Amino acid sequence: MINEPINLSFENFQTAWLEVVKLLSNSQWEVRNLVVQIKNPAAINQEFHKRITDFAQTVQLLGPKHVAYTIFPHTLYRNKGNSTNLFNAYNRAKGVYDKLHKRVHDWGTYFRRMTYYKGNDGPVNQLGNIIDAIKKRNNRSKAAYTMVIQKPGGETIRPLGGPCLNYVAVQIDSDSSRQMTLGLLAVYRNHDFLERAYGNYWGLCNLLTFLANEVNGIAGPLTCISSRAYVEGCKTAIKKLVGEL
Q1: Using an 8 Å Cβ cutoff, are 43 and 16 in contact?
Q2: What is the pLDDT of residue 119?
Q3: Which residues pair with residue 230 across a beta bridge?
Q4: 176 pLDDT higher than 70
Q5: Lowest pLDDT segment from 31-40, 69-78, 148-157
Q6: Which residues, 6+ apart, have CB-to-CB distance to 18 below 8 Å?
Q7: Closest CA to 8 of 145, 193, 176
Q8: Strand partners, 8
Q9: Domain spans of the chain?
C-alpha cells in the first residue's frame, strides 16, 4: 500500500533516525513518502553515536562514519580548512577518492558526484558552483541551487547498485536585516534504516554545516524525503537497540 505522506520534525538527526525506526517497527518495517525535518544539523550526542557504531560492528554493518563519508568527508574538510583544498584533495589523481574507492565498475560516492560529475563536457563541480554563486550574486535566489546525483539512463531504472540519493537542493532564507540561513532538501528513492539512514542523515547534516560555513551563513534545517523507507535485516536486533536508547 502506498500511504499518504508522513511528516515528522525533530531537533537532531539521531532522534530522527530513532523515531523513524520505531515507526517502521510498527508499520511492518516499510513506509512510503516519509518527510523528515532535522532542525539542528550540528547537534550530536556522542554516547548515542557510540552505541550506534558499536551496534553496526556487532551485527557486521557498515559503520556510520563510512556511510556519512560518502556524502561529506568531514574529517578531510577539517584537516584541509576550506572548500578549495577539500575538493582538490578528494578529486585529484591518486587523491582521497582514488585511494578509498577501489571498485572500478560501480558508480562511486555521493560526494564525488556532487564535486566531479562527469558530463559531456567534462567533470562538473556542482557543489563548488553553488558556493561560488551564493558568494558572488548580490541577489540570492531562495531556490536556485541544486545538485543531481543519478545519471540518465540505466541508473534511473536500476533496482540495486545505483545511487539511492537522487537530488539535493540548497535553500536560502536571506534579507538585509539578518544573516543568511541555509537549508538542505534531499530526496532518496530507497532508504535503508538499518545500515544507511543514520549515516546518511549525519553526512547530510555535515554537508549543510560545511555549506553554511563556506558562505558565511547559518545552518538551518535539513529536510529529507524518503520515497521508500525500510528495514530488511536484523529486525530483532535493531528493535532491541532502539528500545534501549
Answers
A1: no
A2: 80
A3: 30, 192
A4: no
A5: 148-157
A6: 242, 245
A7: 193
A8: 36
A9: 6-74+138-244
At 75-128, the pLDDT tens digits run 999 999 999 999 999 999 999 999 887 765 678 899 999 999 988 888 999 999
Nearest of 103, 101, 68 to residue 222 by alpha carbon: 68
Topology of the domain comprising 6-74+138-244:
Thymidylate Synthase; Chain A (3.30.572)
Q: b or e along 162-190 (b: 16 or more beta carbons within 10 Å of the residue's beta carbon)?
A: bbbbbbbbbbbebeeeeebebbbbbbbbb
pLDDT at 177: 62
Is this structure's pTM higher than 0.90? yes
CA distance 182 to 151: 26
C-alpha pair distances (Å), 190 with each of 111, 219, 227:
18, 26, 6
DSSP string, 163-230: -SEEEEEEEEEEETTEEEEEEEEEEESSEETTTTHHHHHHHHHHHHHHHHHHTT-EEEEEEEEEEEEE
Residue with cell 536571506: 174
**Phi and psi dihedrals of 29, rounded to 5?**
65, 25
* Res. 69: pLDDT tops 80: yes
Is 133 exposed, middle or buried (CB count within 10 Å of its CB: 0-12, 13-18, 19+)? Answer: middle
| C-alpha cell belonging to residue 244 | 534501549
Tell me if residue 148 falls in helix, strand or coil. Answer: strand
pLDDT tens, residue by residue, 136-153: 887 778 888 999 998 887
Question: Could you give the CA distance from residue 32 to residue 11 in angstroms, rounded to a whole number?
Answer: 22
